[in-house]
Design brief:
Layout lengths: L2 E3 L7 H9 L5 H15 L16 E5 L4 E2 L4 E9 L7 E11 L4 E3 L4 H4 E3 L6 E7 L4 E9 L5 E2 L5 E9 L6 E7 L3 E4 L4 E3 L6 E7 L24 H9 L19 H11 L21 H9 L19 H16 L4 H4 L17 H9 L19 H14 L4
Helix pairs in contact: 4-10, 5-6, 5-10, 7-9
């Protein structure tokens, strides 16, 4: 629950902790923090945000999958979800994540490299041991009195690259997101999740139980030298894409709108929403009803008009690009206008792409998510195949720093 209160209740001690832990950093960063603190202290007389603007804001921690082995690298994503964020801007936000440093470490031991900005360009990033409780913490903060940022509903606020230590002990490992407090640009303070810590766990499996994957066939119809085998295997491992049965993948089969929506929703680990009968051709109880509801609510996919979704229609290559770019903008909280300007006129048939999809095709190509059917042709109207969908979903996750 996002609860507003006058700034007199703001935990000023948190700012002093940031200053104390990182006193060795550049003075300009310290001055920025002090200026923000001073600005806050001078604005103690504020009005409480109206109750109707306070809604449920839910923190979450995502891992891509729930089990890893010693030596594996993976991404931890922090996100905030809630309609209250749609009109929320802030000059200061901070996230603190506690993790098991006995079994986990940053992937490259480089804080700037492993703590990856999303749409928030953090002014401070720290990875430190709290001596009072011997717990390892990652702390990131954005503080700028002259420039506010709009928080994005559902987008990842931080991606962190971790490695499971080679000598890690098997078992359940905890990640604890410390209580999050948001300060809006009117200096009201809001508490997320009732000002309580948020905990997620993953499991480290014994190293000797890991089965070798190199040189093994996952499906009978996906050969070892198949160009998309790596993408298919990775997504099957993450339970994003499944075989048509236990032995076959059918890489040359077309992909339906409902299937591609499912691939994206699973890839982003979105929590499924209830379906309320928004479309005439999607019935409650259909295997994809909640997937459609979730993808539409997230503005990743739209209906086709006249109250229809056409879940069983095949997805064309240009439609797939439109969906994947919407998904990219949603989970990263970023627009792709800058990417469009970098397009190098690679595809000779770009004019054959529908006008509503041209920018999406260009952005997807610049981001490294899609290629042409040949070096110079995109073939926008052809139906997408399951092998192509697997490649695009995996490259989309990579472009989003999620793998």
């Amino acid at each position: 629950m996002l609860v507003g209160e006058p700034l007199a209740g703001f935990p000023i001690s948190k700012f002093f902790i940031v200053l104390d832990v990182n006193f060795m950093f550049k003075w300009k960063k310290l001055i920025s923090l002090l200026l923000l603190l001073n600005c806050i202290l001078l604005n103690c007389v504020v009005s409480v945000k109206a109750e109707e603007n306070n809604g449920s804001v839910v923190p979450d921690i995502k891992f891509g999958k729930q089990t890893y082995y010693p030596g594996d690298t993976f991404t931890v994503s922090l996100r905030l979800t809630g309609d209250s964020l749609n009109d929320f801007s802030t000059n200061g936000v901070e996230f603190v994540l506690e993790y098991d440093h006995f079994n986990l470490e940053l992937a490259s031991s480089n804080t700037d490299k492993d703590l990856r900005n999303s749409y928030i360009n953090y002014t401070n990033k720290f990875n430190y041991l709290n001596k009072s409780d011997n717990k390892q913490n990652i702390r990131v903060a954005y503080m700028n009195i002259s420039k506010s940022i709009a928080l994005k509903n559902g987008a990842n606020v931080l991606n962190i690259k971790f490695k499971v230590k080679d000598n890690a002990q098997p078992g359940i490992k905890r990640f604890v997101l410390k209580p999050v407090q948001l300060v809006d640009n009117k200096y009201n303070v809001f508490h997320v999740n009732n000002d309580e810590a948020f905990v997620r766990t993953l499991e480290i499996l014994p190293k000797d139980s890991k089965k070798p994957s190199a040189g093994l066939k996952t499906f009978n119809d996906v050969e070892l030298k198949h160009w998309a085998k790596e993408y298919i295997d990775k997504l099957v491992e993450r339970k994003v894409i499944l075989g048509v049965d236990s032995s076959n993948f059918k890489p040359k089969n077309n992909v339906t709108r409902a299937q591609f929506a499912a691939f994206i929703v699973r890839a982003l680990e979105l929590d499924l929403l209830e379906y309320n009968g928004e479309f005439k051709d999607v019935k409650s109880g259909d295997w994809y009803d909640k997937i459609v509801a979730t993808a539409v609510k997230s503005k990743i996919i739209e209906g086709v008009g006249a109250g229809k979704f056409e879940p069983n229609s095949f997805v064309t290559r240009e439609q797939m690009c439109a969906m994947i770019i919407r998904a990219y903008e949603y989970i990263n909280g970023l627009e792709t206008k800058d990417q469009i300007s970098k397009y190098k006129n690679r595809f000779k048939d770009i004019k054959e792409v529908s006008s509503w999809a041209q920018d999406c095709v260009k952005a997807a190509n610049v981001l490294g998510i899609v290629n042409g059917m040949t070096d110079t042709k995109f073939v926008p109207k052809s139906n997408s195949l399951r092998e192509q969908a697997a490649a695009i979903i995996y490259k989309f996750l990579k472009a989003s720093d999620l793998v």
